[in-house]
Amino acid sequence: MSFYTAENFHHIGSVGFLLNKARNQIVADMDAALAELNVKAQYIGILMSLMREPTATPAGLSRQLGVDSGLMTRMLDRLDALGLLDRSRDTMDRRVVNLQLTAAGRAASRRIAELAPNVLNARLRNFSPAEHDELRRLLYKLLLD
């Protein structure tokens, strides 16, 4: 089924536009909530992934988070400069870089875990539990190829 055609397409009402606008609002809200940590929303996935998986690689994080390797490198450089993660060469394969949170990175991740739910809950305040579940279901469906 085709939902859009050249005749009826209006970008402002399209699913892509609305998803992007919703994402931008959540990112802005999250950036404001994380200002105390000097961390941006774009780093949450990396920090939380490393909190749950103490040793990871840039390639593994790129795949998991759906981020290209160039952007991943720039984000890791920033987190490294902030003192939130350490990089080390794998002892078995020197081509592999292992990532680990520093003590400051673990503290920031714990704080993010406290702040992020408040931001998301505020955005979802007008949703019923069933609507929340349906939104998640539909987003997962949209992600399927």
From TrEMBL:
Ranges for domain HTH marR-type: 12-144
Record flagged with keyword Transcription regulation: yes
GO molecular function terms attached to this record: DNA binding; DNA-binding transcription factor activity
Pfam families: MarR
Alphabetical keyword list: DNA-binding, Transcription, Transcription regulation
Record SUPFAM superfamilies: Winged helix' DNA-binding domain
InterPro entries attached to this UniProt entry: HTH_MarR-typ (IPR000835), WH-like_DNA-bd_sf (IPR036388), WH_DNA-bd_sf (IPR036390)
Gene3D superfamilies per the UniProt record, alphabetical: Winged helix-like DNA-binding domain superfamily/Winged helix DNA-binding domain
The protein, known as: MarR family transcriptional regulator
